[in-house]
Design goal:
1 helix, 148 residues, 3-stranded mixed β-sheet
Length: 148
């Protein structure tokens, strides 16, 4: 009888370990998939001045919040809207505004917008989303474009 009990306890312990492993694997994969867009953005932005920029926008703000580009060189900007249409403030829409450069682009929910411009003057420029989440006055909806 004690042999059966030990065998059953061993099987239960193995089942628990397997269950914990499965839960941790699923959580790890979910975290990886969630973080992947941010990791790609960081890798593209880490090299300093660039001619290609990927910006992610959601109700929690811009990622990255600072972008460096070179004056006089074409810059291709890809804006990825991570919010869906069920976002209660603005219906999931976001925009990218740089008043000083005359740029205003709208990005639909779960959409991507790509455009190219040439910054002609060196300096630091505020960019922001003014559609939702407090708009321009919300510091999370703001970023800085640095033209070198």
């Amino acid at each position: 009888m004690s042999e059966k009990k030990t065998s059953r306890q061993g099987g239960q312990a193995l089942g628990r370990r397997l269950g914990v492993f499965v839960v941790l694997a699923v959580l790890g994969m979910a975290l990886y998939l969630f973080a992947l867009p941010y990791l790609r953005t960081a890798a593209r932005s880490a090299s300093g001045a660039t001619s290609q920029v990927v910006l992610r926008i959601s109700m929690s703000g811009w990622q990255p919040t600072e972008v460096r580009v070179k004056r006089g060189e074409p810059v291709t900007v890809e804006i990825v809207n991570l919010d869906n249409r069920f976002h209660t403030d603005g219906g999931g829409w976001h925009n990218f505004v740089v008043e000083a450069l005359g740029i205003e682009k709208r990005v639909p929910p779960k959409g991507t917008l790509t455009f190219t411009f040439v910054p002609e003057r060196a300096g630091e420029y505020l960019f922001y989303c003014d559609i939702c989440c407090g708009g321009k006055d919300n510091p999370f909806m703001q970023g800085k474009l640095v033209v070198l």
